[in-house]
Amino acid sequence: MKWSKLSASYAARREQLLAELGAWDERGPARLELDPEFVHPPYTNVHFHLQPGGYHKDELGGFLYHYGTKVFFRGDNDKDELHDKLVGSVAPPADGQVRRILDFACSMGQSTTAFKARFPQADVVGIDHSAAMLRAAHRRASMLGSDVSFVQRLVEDTRMPANHFDIVFAFIVFHELPQRVARAAVAEALRVLRPGGVFAIYDFNGTESQSPYQRYHRYFDARHNGEPYSQDFCDCDLTAILQSAGFTVPKAAALPDRAGGPGYMKHWYAVKAQAMAESWDAEAYAAQTPETGTPIVGNNPVYLPDPIADATVRMVVELAAQVWVDRERLLVLETVLAERGIVARDAIESFKPSADQARALKQERTDFIEDVFKALRTIPLGTVDSERE
C-alpha cells in the first residue's frame, strides 16, 4: 500500500523533519502565519485520498501529501509542471493589472509559487486550513527563494479585505467541500475579488458530460478513496452556482489531457462585474434566515432558524456521510480478508483492543467531541422564533 510504506518512511525520520520545519518556520523569504486558536470545521476531518491523518492531523501531513501526489500524477508533476501549466493558462483581468493573488486551499503551495514566478511584482497569498500543509509549503517556498505568504484560513471565511485581489485561484478544491461550503467559498471569492477580478477554478468535470467509465470511476473514487463530497460536486452545476453568486462565466471548458481521459477535468473562468459597488455586502447576502422571510437559497443557505441547531444538523449529515463511506470500506476489507483466509470474520468480531489501545481510542473520542463543541462555540448565538419556542 502506498500510504503505509510512505508513512513508515517518514516516521523513521519524524524528529529530523519536525526539527527542519521548526527551523524553517522563522526563515524567509516566504512568510508563515498560523492561528493558534484555529478550530477545524467538522467537514475537514476526512482522510482525503485515504491519507493517514488526513490533511491536518499529522504534523508531517504536508510531506505525505506532496509525495503522494507525485505518485498520483505518475511523474507528470515531479517539477510542478502541471501547476506551472495551469497557472500559466489563467487569463489576467481585462485591464491587465495583477497586484494581488489569493490561492485557495494551497496545500503545498505549488500554485502559489508558480503565480509568484509568473507575476513577480504581485503579492501572492496561499491559504489552507492545515498547519501541517502550510509549514511544509513555507519551507518549500523559502528553499526556492519565493517571496510569498502562507496564512491559516478557511476558503469560506478568508478574513481577507473586500475588493482586494485581482485573481483568486482554486485547484482541485471544490470536490473536497460539502455543497454548502462550496457555495460559501464562491461567495467569499466574489467578496475578496476587486471588480473585474478573475476567479479561476480547475476541478472534476460534471458527470452529465462524462462517459460511463468516467462516471463509474467517479462513483468508485467517491465511495472508496476518501472523497465523501466529490459525487455531490460532480452532480452540481458549478457554472450556475457561480452565476447565481454574481459572477459572469465567460469560459467553462473540459481539459483535453488529464488522467481519467479527455474531459475528466474542467476549468472555469469567472469574472466579478465591474459594475459591482464597492459597498456590496456579501455577509448580508449570506446571512439569510427563515425568520426574515428570505428564501432558503443562495451561497450559504440556512435550513433552521437557530444557528447552533443548523450547524449541528449539518455536522451530523457530514459525519453520517463519512460513516457510510467507512462502513463500505470496512465491509470490503472484511470480505477480502475472509475470502483469502487471512482473518475470519468471527475473529474480527471477537477482537478486543488492548488496554493501551482502549485508552488511545477513548482519548481520540474525547478529543473529537471537544473539537465538535469548540466548533459549535464559535457560532454566534441566534434568537429562535417565539412561535417555534
- Compressed to H and E, one letter per element, the order equals HHEHHEHEHEEHEHHHEEHHHH
Level-2 CATH architecture of the largest domain: 3-Layer(aba) Sandwich
Average pLDDT works out at 78
Share of β-strand residues: 5-15%
Instruction: Give the number of helices.
Output: 14
Poorly predicted regions: 277-301, 382-389
- List the strand order in the largest sheet: 1-4-3-2-5-6-8-7
Q: What is the subunit organization of this protein?
A: single chain
Estimated structural class: alpha/beta
CATH topology of the largest domain: Rossmann fold
CATH class of the largest domain: Alpha Beta
Q: What portion of residues is helical?
A: 40-55%
Outline the biggest β-sheet.
Answer: 8 strands, mixed
Domain tally: 2
Which features characterize this protein?
single chain, 389 residues, alpha/beta, Rossmann fold, 2 domains, eight-stranded mixed beta sheet, 14 helices, 45% helix, disordered C terminus
